[in-house]
Amino acid sequence: EVRLVESGGGSVQAGGSLRLSCAVSEYQFSRHCMAWFRQAPGEEREVVASISDISRTTYADSVKGRFTISRDSAANTLFLRMNSLKPEDTGVYYCAAAQWYPAMCERASAYGYWGQGTQVTVSS
After folding, report:
1. What are the tens digits of pLDDT across the range 49-99?
2. DSSP of the chain, one letter per residue?
């Protein structure tokens, strides 16, 4: 069974930084697209950043230049470095893994495996 476990969320003030991690098991991590999604209260879940098997990355316009997605295939771990955080970045952040290969990593529909989510709260 594929398992994704996020960590690293928390509460920070605007302008601060956080790094999220996602440990992945029972999955061919190095072969597939991975992504971070977030869901703000009352909003739909949205793709924040994605990364392909060859580490090609895509970002939502709202986080470009502030967030960095990366992967460590040796450790089966996905990361999201978040700098210059804003109150509108508040939400539950989910790690996601693609269901099949190949896939269009920037498409939300590519993802079928999810972590439990980690809360990020940014205060002004």
Report:
1. 999 999 999 999 999 999 999 999 999 999 999 999 999 999 999 999 999
2. --EEEEE--EEEETT--EEEEEEEESS-GGGS-EEEEEE-TTS--EEEEEE-TT--EEE-GGGTTTEEEEEETTTTEEEEEE-S--GGG-EEEEEEEESSSS--TT-GGGEEEE---EEEEEE-
